[in-house]
Amino acid sequence: MGENEKKDDLFRFVEYSAEKAERTGYSDYSYWKSVFQNFLKKKSAVVMAIVFFALVIFSFIALHIGKYDYAALKTNSAMAFQSPNGEYWFGTDNLGRDYWCQVWYAAQTSIKLALIVALGECVLGVIIGCIWGYIRSLDRILTEVYNIINNVPVIIYMTLIALLVGQSFTIMCISLIGFGWLTMARNVRNLVMMYRDREYNLASRCLGTPIWRVLVKNILPYLISIIILRLALSIPSTIALESTLSYLGLGLGIDTPSLGILLRNARNYFLEHPYLLIFPAVIVSLITVTFYLVGNAFSDAADPRNHV
């Protein structure tokens, strides 16, 4: 009897407290907080992100600290092909115009183009990809549309557009978005098909949940890492494609300078005057490499499977 009393002294009933119970079950996990914490652990990606943003910011500052205004540039054949010096920091081109303001103005144009096209491809690709993957009756039709568009090289589309419609910043944006959504849509479609028949999605549909809500709430969170990766890769690929098209004379109009146009103009003179090619080529390389590395790192950080 005495032993039972001693055992009873070792235990006691705890009164129920709703506040303590809530505190016990509380988790301070935040998806985006965890994403940035994982991203910041990758020091090389952080450095590349700083380099990219510094380059973008400096492209706006450079035009204000330069000695010449791009809008007021005039041809001066007597000053043609001046090597970089104290007066002309990046030298002059074949027409005697300051190359510093041309390079940084062109960098702004290329970066704006890349951002607009990347966002446009992302929005259009995600919408079409979700519809493509979720609605079974549209799968065959959208697959055929994808195959028809994807099997023709982009260079042919852009050549026809340049000849029939014209060349401008707006036309370039619409054209690249019109053909660039394919990769995003295909990736999203494949993932939506994987997740659409999971038990919780079937239960949601049985309860009468609208399709758009199932896509947005149940499926889209699983696609974030892929969307971020494609968005990040689209920016350098757009700049590279624009540079290639402009080099071939199929890109932006002559009155809209870009890094691709500067590279095209430098092809006839870079052997004697290499600085005409080096400066725009270095900026293109920095943008493409840094954003590619940052995009990969951020995509890994956005994957919930990498969160602790």
Automatic annotation (TrEMBL):
Keyword Membrane: yes
Compartment(s) of residence: Cell membrane
Transmembrane segments: 45-65, 113-135, 155-184, 219-239, 275-294
Gene3D superfamilies named among the record's database cross-references: MetI-like
Topology term for the membrane: Multi-pass membrane protein
Keyword tags: Cell membrane, Membrane, Peptide transport, Protein transport, Transmembrane, Transmembrane helix, Transport
Domain ABC transmembrane type-1: 111-295
Primary location: membrane
Protein name in the entry: Oligopeptide permease
